[in-house]
Amino acid sequence: MIEAQGLTKRYGRTLAVNNLSFSVEPGQVTGFLGPNGAGKSTTMRMILGLDNPTSGQVRIGGKRYHDLKQPLRTVGALLDAKWVHPNRSARAHLAWMAKSNKIPARRVDEVLDIVGLSSVAGKRAGGFSLGMSQRLGIAGALLGDPEVLLFDEPVNGLDPEGILWIRKFMHRLADEGRTVFVSSHLLSEMALTASNLVVIGKGQLISQSTTKQFVARAAENSVKVRSPHLDRLRPAVERAGGTIVDSDGGVVISGMESDKIGELAAENGVVLHELSPQTGSLEQAFMQITGDSVEYHTGLETEAQQVLEASAK
Ligand SMILES: Nc1ncnc2c1ncn2[C@@H]1O[C@H](COP(=O)(O)OP(=O)(O)OP(=O)(O)O)[C@@H](O)[C@H]1O
């Protein structure tokens, strides 16, 4: 479990993280979401003791990072996949990490197997693709068999196959009962990966909830309706307070539940060909909730769109 309380980090005039409090529970994947520059990496670095908070604190399993006797056995992290000596083999890199953390050498082959790199264990890590480097980084994070895992933007730059592998792997780690905390600004990917979300903007907490609640709270719910008798349904819906807008061979009604629309249709002898509730996407929810804390709207939408397009291929 990770618990942050009043976590604050100031770099000169920049307040990178501002009085941030949240908790991350074991047994599920928690997404750490926020636009570029929101303070995600800074927060992760403070969790890992790589940066000291200006004020506030963060604890892992009740302890501060600096008080952990063997940190790699409690928390593993993937912050930068390219953080590896280019001329070392994957196995040599992990063996060096294991040795410096008093982890038995046999664990190296175990983690290589877990991430599917056994067949290239003797190859130079400098020649690895980004996807293979990510796997190697994850193997390093798993060396100490830690309860808590942190991943900073793990799918950035990966192809759809690599993205899918990471997503499944995170679910597996959570199913094993670990605490998995993963930062991203790729909204659609987080919708598929995380069951819980900590959302920040400009260093401050915007929301902590399940992904479902986050989407339901923000996205405007509406109902798509197709009917040969729209001329009769339209006034009935409007009289009852619904808003009706033409759309794609039918109408979209908002401000009214589908049950109520069905009842109105029956009362007015209206035949329905379609009555389908539409739920909003994480993108819509994010844009609506983060509002003016999103500094770079265009970049954010483009990134989300890229992943949607990539996963559709
Ligand atoms: N070492 C540093 N010195 C000065 N300012 C910093 C430093 N690290 C981060 N910042 C600033 O703190 C703010 C938060 O940055 P951070 O990298 O934590 O955000 P982020 O949410 O991880 O963004 P991204 O998604 O772009 O990686 C930004 O304004 C950034 O410029």
Automatic annotation (TrEMBL):
One of its GO terms (molecular function) is ATP hydrolysis activity. SMART domains: AAA (SM00382). The keyword Lyase does not apply. Residues 2-227 form the ABC transporter domain. PROSITE patterns: ABC_TRANSPORTER_1, ABC_TRANSPORTER_2. The keyword Nucleotide-binding applies. Keywords: ATP-binding, Nucleotide-binding, Transport. This is ABC transporter ATP-binding protein. The lineage of its organism: Bacteria, Bacillati, Actinomycetota, Actinomycetes, Pseudonocardiales.
